[in-house]
Amino acid sequence: MERSYEELIVSIPDYPKPGVTFKDLTPIFDDGNAFRAVVDDLAAHFAGHDITKVMGAEARGFIVGAAVAYALGIGFVPARKPGKLPRKTINTTYDLEYGSDELEIHEDALGSQDTVLVIDDLVASGGTAVAMAELVQACGARLAGMGFIMELGFLDPRTKIAQATDAEVFSLITV
Length: 175
Description:
Elements: E1 10-13, E2 21-24, H1 26-30, H2 32-46, E3 53-57, H3 60-72, E4 75-79, E5 89-96, E6 99-106, E7 115-123, H4 127-138, E8 142-151, H5 157-164, E9 168-174
Parallel strand pairs: 3-4, 3-7, 7-8, 8-9
Antiparallel strand pairs: 1-2, 5-6
Helix pairs in contact: 2-3, 4-5
């Protein structure tokens, strides 16, 4: 269910580089009612899917993903930048709309018994989402779906995601 969160989102032109309009969702996190609403809406959409873990990417995916995991009463798996996790990891490299990056998780964070929900604040080109799907698959876990507060539909992330997984993609807001 789409609520009035859109009025809280701030568009910042030419950030982080010329030609990119950054969508700042942090005002949603600052508003207790809006933050609760997005978490509740994402959790409610995926309730009943037998999900055992939520995965979120550093850093804003931690904020939303951990809150959704809490709402669902399940564990949270942080997908971090290289060198931030203390135990043995698996990693993947991926392309962003304005560069490339790498994510890693603990090698034992997920197993074949896990059903995973990927959560992030925003999906743009789909690179981060696909990277998390690859990490889930590399652990032998099942990907139940992906949930986002905002989807930049004009960048067509669903096409890229569909090439990597047939998991459901759900966004509260699409621009």
